[in-house]
Amino acid sequence: MTMGYGLSRGWTAVLVASLALNLFVAGFVVAQVAWGDKVAAPAPVAEQAATPATPATPVVRRVVVEQNKALRPSMVAVRKANEAVTAALLAEPFDPAQLDAALEHLRTVTLASQTALHGTMLDAIAAMTPEQRRELAEASRRSPADRVFLGR
After folding, report:
1. Where are the strands (E) in 11-144, listed by range?
2. Structural domain boundaries of the chain?
C-alpha cells in the first residue's frame, strides 16, 4: 500500500525516523556551540547529596544534611501530598473535588516544610560573617538545583 507520494508505509517510517535523528543531532551540535561545556551534566545529585557537609557546603544543603532528622518528616509529607495529587489526576472517574482537596493539602504541607527549613536556615545564617551572607545572596540568584546541590 502506498501513501501520498507513492511511498510505502515502511519508507515513510524510515524517512520520519531519519528526520527525527537528524534534528536531534543538529540540536545537540547547536547546543554544544551555543553553550560550550555548560551542556555537560554535573555530578549526579545522589553522589553530591552523599558527600558530607563541610563549612564550604552551600548553606541550604548543609542545613538539610545536619537537620535531616528534624526536616525529614516534612519532606516526606510533601512527597506523599504530591503522590495524592497524582492519584487524584489519574482517578477514574475524575473527581474535581478530590483534586482540589489534594492540592490544598499539598499547599499546606509545602508551607509547613518551607517554614521548618527556613527556621533551621535562620540559625545557620545568623552565625555567618557578612562575606558569607553576601555569597549566599549571590547564590540565591542561581537556579534552585545549583544553589542546593552544586554550590555554584
Report:
1. none
2. 2-39, 45-150
Instruction: Write the single-letter amino acid at 128.
Output: M
**pTM, full prediction:** 0.50
Residues in the chain: 152
Match 549526579 to its residue by C-alpha cell.
Answer: 44
Q: Mind listing the pLDDT tens digit of every residue in the chain (152 residues)? A: 444 566 677 778 777 777 777 777 777 666 666 655 544 444 454 555 555 555 556 666 776 677 777 888 888 999 999 999 999 999 999 999 999 999 999 999 999 998 988 888 887 788 888 888 888 787 777 666 654 555 54
CA distance 152 to 139: 7
Query: What sign does the dihedral 49-54-58-59 (CA atoms) show?
Result: positive
